[in-house]
Design a protein that fits this description.
The complex is a heterodimer of chains A (466) and B (462). Chain A is α+β, with helices and mostly antiparallel strands and 466 residues long. Chain A has twelve helices and 20 strands. Classes of the chains: A alpha+beta (466), B alpha+beta (462).
């Protein structure tokens, strides 16, 4: 393969500039008419993605994208319009569209843009300039190295589906008629791979990924090892008998489960009565081992940010403290409806309206030790590799939880046979109460969640009759 | 969107340096959405997305760049970036002349853009009223209306020049019922590749009542019996099972990498002889329909499994080129920002001969799944899970008590062998969005009533 043209450098492409975006947003906001609230969010970013397979580059994508989202509130009526370009004539049309849309909405006295609340944003630098400086060859080499590491990881690995490197550098700015002005920029890089392992007439797969603010912080070996072990450790998986089990979740799986639970503590669900945890503030909803907060002010979290999706300062919001429900997450609208104001938890892109969400979930570490030590403490359980069907099997309103599971059985503290083609069932409410051990291996994961491993007791495993 | 001469120059630029293939894909999408929640019309939104993606292939490597700017200067810059990314090899220049354009004309009756926003708002309000009036236990209702028009233009260095003008309209209602045992939800959605005439085919009142009735029924539901059962799947929404459990495994890109349980099995009996599985992008008006795919190939009706025998996989241009065969018209992408890959359109199990009543009557103890929700499959192992959103016990050949939500779990290749009855009551199911490698595209699916001798049901805690 010959050398790769560094097309970004060749084209003389500039960095995304928060100040320029803020100027665009502010200029539009300045056009607000009397009695009209206006909020404009603008984004600009560059991204590349490399996919490799069989020692060759399968695709190399280079992209620049823009976005704008315009929110208008007039007489309590809200309208929204968005576009994937910053062309002046399109911006004009979207502003007109948003205004027109507002005339058809119903009056809602709580509708409105966020009001500045005096909370100072933390000073976090999410920008690593080397993402834009990195050459295309180096990106390709990383992805190829990941594929090689996976193939060399175990004789039983027969191939990969794809190995990928991706990165992005973007800026976001927001201005509104309430005087909110926010602008920031950030970078990201990621590696992912799916390993395949032959298992008789079946194929087992193992997926792993890592994310960071720049390529040099990615842990390629860890990704390769995880993908390989997840695939080969499932070889020979069979359907287990139905029984009650303990679930051992490593930080990745714990992040998935706690992520689902924290979603039920967001304002939209709370004000509309669509959460199993409404009206429970101050009550015990979890095992005393569980303490959970949303903390985008932690610079080590990949979910860290200075401002939320409405331009307010991000802050640490306790959710559960030693099992007791402490609070919910609100954007300005749901905060007004609930009565306490925004918690700085609006999440959004430019294509949609802000809504309350979890930004950087943080679960406190416990005293349960490492994952191995947690496994050693389980008599009858499963070390979970994979949970499947989360979007269909978890009902965030009723709390019903029934998902497919793959992993290894644990008997008397030791790992036993691999299992698959079975489900575990519980409710989100029960899962929280049934946490029986929390590890001391807390990690910051690429998803933005920071969590240790956990053991959840007394879960119904459905497999073969027995 | 773009003049022919401009396309020729952009493609020629993309081929500079000796690429094997170059393509311009331009897209212009306009969407309108109305959502009602909690008794209020919360939001009306409009969006406009326009841009072009340029793809250059050298050997097995694809370079791709996209831009929201459709000017010739921006397209040429994107073409250079894509060519650079594909590592232009041997040098040399080719000029391209695209052929006169072929493709689809717009074939809808009522353009949603011609309907005032007030009429769209009225639909979601009506759904709210009807669902709430259905039963006093209905405490929350949300409803959503959406329409979109997607105009695409494809030109490539093989001389293909095609365009399509796609319109889709959809409507959904979600009702929440509150009872002694907590909250339960009921959902109903419809969507077709049609204009506002969608509401000539479906009554909003009926859709809202259906959603409310599902939520109310589940208030009385008992936990699903976990374990292995005979499962009868009702007509319509069960199609998602075949989409997930075997459709994905028949996508040629996954087959090539050994990431499919169906790799190397063409000509083999992979399913019960009762199974004929078809992917058909030409079913007029269906959600997964189009005139040409996102690579400019005409949509086609492709028989995948016939009487249990695996006939063929689904192909896009890239995989077809590698095998020296024709694309099956299944190259799709989420937007101009994405590379095309092999995707399904409308995937369905053809109707059989059994009377659905007889299929149920033949079960002593089992589960009847009236509505399946979303699912997920591991294409390599074939293992899948699906949510049951409406299900009942079958006792002594009769449908009896409603069941709470649970998951169906199984293995695609195994389930195909375990189908022992297929009904004569084929229906298409609700509109779906299929996700693959981070890209979502609209797909349809459908099934008649069918019976599987053994599926695992994951119950929930009582």
């Amino acid at each position: 393969m010959s050398s790769v043209t560094d097309h970004q450098a060749e084209a003389g492409v500039n960095e995304p500039r928060p100040d320029q975006l803020l100027a665009i947003a502010s200029r539009l906001v300045d056009r607000a008419e009397a009695g009209e609230q206006l909020e404009v969010a603008v984004s600009h970013g560059f991204s590349t993605s490399v996919r490799v397979y069989g020692g060759e580059v399968e695709s190399f994508t280079s992209a620049e994208s823009h976005g704008v989202g315009i929110r208008v509130i007039r007489d309590g009526r809200e309208g929204f319009a968005s576009a994937g370009t910053l062309d002046v004539d399109v911006l004009d049309r979207m502003l007109a569209d948003a205004r027109d849309n507002a005339t058809f909405a119903e009056i809602d006295p709580d509708a409105g843009v966020a009001e500045a609340d005096g909370v100072e944003p933390v000073d976090i630098d999410l920008w690593r300039s080397d993402v834009l400086e990195m050459g295309s060859d180096d990106k390709v080499d990383l992805a190829l190295a990941l594929e090689r590491a996976v193939l060399a990881g175990d004789d039983r690995v027969t191939g990969i589906r794809v190995a990928a490197y991706g990165d992005g550098a973007g800026a976001f700015a927001l201005a509104s008629t309430s005087g909110v002005r926010a602008a920031a920029r950030s970078t990201s890089a990621s590696l992912s791979v799916q390993a395949l392992a032959e298992d008789g007439d079946r194929t087992q797969t193992g997926y792993a990924y890592d994310g960071a603010r720049r390529a040099s912080e990615l842990d390629l070996d860890r990704v390769a090892k995880r993908a390989v072990s997840q695939a080969v450790d499932l070889i020979g998986a069979s359907k287990p008998a139905s029984q009650k089990v303990d679930l051992v979740l490593d930080p990745h799986l714990a992040a998935t489960v706690f992520g689902l639970i924290s979603g039920t503590l967001t304002g939209g669900r709370i004000i509309k009565g669509r959460s199993p945890f409404i009206d429970r503030l101050g009550e015990t909803i979890a095992s005393p081992l569980v303490s959970m907060a949303d903390d985008p002010t932690d610079p080590l979290s990949l979910g860290a940010d200075s401002h939320d999706g409405e331009g307010l300062a991000c802050r640490r919001n306790p959710l559960i403290d030693a099992g007791v429900l402490q609070g919910y997450l609100f954007d300005s609208y749901t905060g007004r409806r609930f009565g306490g104001g925004s918690t700085g938890s609006a999440v959004r892109g430019t294509r949609g309206l802000p809504s309350p969400g979890v930004q950087a979930l943080s679960i406190e570490g416990g005293d349960g030790g490492s994952l191995d030590e947690l496994v050693a403490g389980v008599d009858n359980g499963i070390l979970v590799f994979n949970l499947a069907g989360l979007h269909s099997g978890v009902n965030a309103v009723s709390g019903d939880f029934s998902v497919g599971v793959e992993g290894r059985m644990i008997r008397n503290g030791s790992l036993a046979e691999p299992i698959g083609e079975c489900t575990v069932g519980s409710t989100l409410q029960r899962l929280l109460l049934d946490v029986k051990a929390v590890g001391s291996d807390r990690r910051h994961l690429p998803s933005g969640v920071s969590t240790p491993s956990v053991v959840i007791g007394d879960v119904m495993l459905s497999g073969a009759a027995g | 969107m773009i003049e022919s001469e401009t396309l020729n120059r952009v493609l020629s630029t993309a081929l500079d340096g000796g690429a094997d293939f170059a393509e311009v894909f331009a897209e212009d999408v306009e969407r309108t959405g109305v959502s009602l929640d909690d008794g209020r019309v919360e939001n009306l939104s409009s969006s406009r997305d326009r841009g072009a993606g340029i793809r250059v292939i050298v050997g097995e490597t694809t370079g791709f760049a996209h831009t929201a700017d459709l000017s010739e200067a921006a397209l040429v810059a994107a073409a250079r970036a894509a060519a650079g990314a594909a590592r232009g090899g041997s040098g040399g220049t080719r000029t391209v002349e695209v052929a006169p354009r072929t493709g689809g004309a717009r074939s809808i009756e009522v353009d949603p853009a011609s309907i005032g926003k007030a009429a769209k708002v009225a639909l979601v309000r009506r759904a709210d009223e009807v669902a709430r009036a259905h039963h006093e236990a209905i405490t929350q209702v949300s409803a959503r209306y959406g329409d979109n028009r997607r105009q695409i233009l494809i030109a490539n260095s093989d001389g293909v020049s095609a365009s399509d003008d796609q319109t889709r309209t959809n409507f959904a209602v979600n009702a929440v019922a509150s009872g002694d045992a907590g909250l339960q939800t009921g959902y109903e959605s419809v969507g077709l590749s049609v204009g506002f005439e969608l509401f000539d085919r479906y009554e909003v009142d009926q859709l809202a009542s259906n959603a409310a009735a599902r939520a109310i029924t589940k208030l009385e539901a008992r936990p699903a019996p976990s374990g292995t059962h005979v499962v009868v799947i009702g007509p319509g929404s069960g199609g998602v099972l075949f989409h997930e459990a075997c459709g994905h495994g028949l996508e040629a890109d996954l087959v090539r990498k050994g990431a499919s349980a169906f790799a190397g099995r063409v000509g083999e009996q992979v399913a019960s002889p009762l199974v004929t599985l078809i992917d058909d992008g030409t079913m007029a008006g269906e959600w997964g329909n189009y005139a040409v795919d996102d690579e400019g190939q005409p949509a086609a009706r492709n028989v995948l499994i016939e009487n249990g025998v695996l006939v063929d996989y689904l192909w896009d241009g890239n995989r077809a080129r590698q095998e020296g065969r024709a694309s099956s018209g299944n190259g799709r992408r989420q937007s101009y920002r994405h590379l095309p890959m092999v995707r399904m359109t409308n995937t369905y199990l053809a109707g059989g001969e059994s009377d659905p009543a007889d299929i149920i009557a033949g079960v002593d103890n089992g589960v009847y799944v009236a509505k399946l929700g979303g699912g997920q499959v591991n294409t390599a192992s074939g293992d899948f899970v699906f949510g049951m959103t409406e299900a009942y016990l079958i006792e002594n050949g009769r449908i009896t008590a409603p069941l709470r939500e649970g998951q169906l779990i199984g293995n695609g290749p195994k389930v195909l062998q375990q189908i022992d009855a297929v009904g004569n009551d084929f229906e298409m199911g609700p509109p779906g969005t299929c996700g693959k490698d981070g890209q979502g595209v609209p797909v349809g699916d459908g099934v008649p009533t069918l019976r599987v001798t053994e599926l695992t049901i994951g119950g929930t805690a009582a």
